[in-house]
Design goal:
With 242 residues, the protein is α+β, with helices and mostly antiparallel strands. Helices cover 29% and strands 14% of the residues. Helix 2 links the parallel strand 2 and strand 3. Helix 4 crosses helix 5. The chain is globular. The two termini are 29 Å apart.
Length: 242
């Protein structure tokens, strides 16, 4: 394996019957690494590009061209509407919190991603761009999600940081919601109902840090991947999880 190559997910894909491509969230200086590229129109959700990802294309985001206001805020720390108007929209118009007070508390506490370069990219995992990958996202069904969640717990002790989180927030924020990207951690995403219209009904997002991705790819014959619980689940699904 090349020094800067990503871990090999082949065994994980084979054992869990994962067919959809892995998606990288990248912070990189050079757009040419990610050709072919697509860019969002104003107010366009990043998950509008799900079919583009399946076709091998990568979404290119900048502070000037970020798509919807959620991406501007979550991925670039930009405010695209007045604070009070934003609170009212989320709490009253969309009913996402029980009160303006709770909505305001969440807005003040939420984590923003802070780009290191002028470009963010969301698209298929590319070996030559691996040094710039911040997270890796699996597009999976509920059975595959359950197995990945077990895998994320495999090396975790009770006193470790939670190996799997499910934070409230926009779909794009759930691609990189981690306070510390250096620790092995996973996030169940795509719980933002505003973006689920752009995914098939049975597809769930499971995003992981680089170190968690390595741990998942290194699961071997001693793990649940080769044990009776998973085999019985496969039998119940007709032999495959997909």
């Amino acid at each position: 394996m090349r020094k800067n190559a990503p871990p090999n997910p082949e065994r994980l894909h084979n054992r869990l019957d994962i067919k959809l491509p892995l998606i990288g969230f990248y912070d990189a200086p050079d757009p040419s690494l990610f050709d072919p590229l697509v860019e969002p129109d104003p107010r366009q959700c990043v998950f509008c590009f799900y079919k583009d990802w399946l076709a091998g294309k990568t979404l290119h985001l900048t502070r000037e061209r970020y798509g919807c206001g959620g991406a501007a805020s979550s991925l670039f720390g930009m405010q695209t509407r007045p604070r009070n108007e934003f609170i009212k929209f989320l709490a009253d118009d969309e009913g996402l919190k029980a009160s303006h007070f709770l909505m305001e508390k969440w807005i003040d506490a939420r984590r923003h991603y802070h780009p290191e370069n002028g470009h963010l990219f969301i698209g298929p995992l590319k070996e030559n761009a691996w040094p710039y990958a911040k997270t890796v996202t699996f597009l999976v069904n509920p059975d595959q999600l359950s197995a990945l969640a077990i895998g994320a717990q495999y090396h975790s002790a009770p006193d470790d940081p939670p190996p799997v989180i499910a934070p409230f927030g926009s779909g794009c924020s759930q691609l990189a919601p981690f306070k510390d990207l250096s620790i092995p951690q996973a996030s169940i995403g795509s719980t933002d109902i505003a973006m689920r219209q752009h995914l098939p009904a049975d597809v769930i997002v499971f995003s992981v840090t680089r170190s968690m991705f390595r741990q998942l790819c290194e699961l071997d014959e001693r793990s649940f991947l080769y044990k009776p619980f998973l085999e019985r689940l496969k039998e119940a699904r007709g032999g495959k999880l997909q």
